[in-house]
Amino acid sequence: MAHGGSETKTTVIGNGVDLGFFVDQPRDDAFADSLGVKSKVVAAYVGTHGVAHGLDVILDATEILRDRDDIVFLTAGDGAERKLSRHKN
Questions:
Q1: Residue 86: what pLDDT?
Q2: Which of 1, 28, 45, 68 is the most buried (most CB within 10 A)?
Q3: Which residues of the chain have pLDDT under 50?
């Protein structure tokens, strides 16, 4: 290694997901209804809510689309920005 590290002591973990883990499934209307999103477009962000993730774009979009009752935004995850987004509602 160029900076003196040992290749036997180094592990690279790629950033991403194994898409094979996810499979297409039919819409679960009962679950969608329990969330109040049945028959709505769901825009979702799932991941870390950090400074580097640009979640302000989602907050801006919610403001622009505030009057559209056919679109809902769902976020799932945690991080430094998650606490901030809870207070902007």
A1: 53
A2: 45
A3: 87, 89
* Tokens representing residue 72 in the block: 């809902």
pLDDT in tens, 66-79: 999 999 998 888 88
Query: What is the distance in angstroms between the CA of the first residue and the CA of the last residue of the chain?
Result: 49
Amino acid 84: pLDDT? 57
**Cα separation of 37 and 73, whole Å?**
10
Number of compact structural domains in the chain: 1
Supply the pTM of this predicted model. 0.60
Dist CA 10 CA 7 (whole Å)? 5
Q: What angle do CA 39, 40, 41 make, to 5 degrees?
A: 135
- The span from the CA of 24 to the CA of 38, in Å, is 18
Compute the 3-state secondary structure of the chain and give helix, strand, coil in percent, each to the nearest 5. Answer: 35, 15, 50
Type of residue found at 21? F
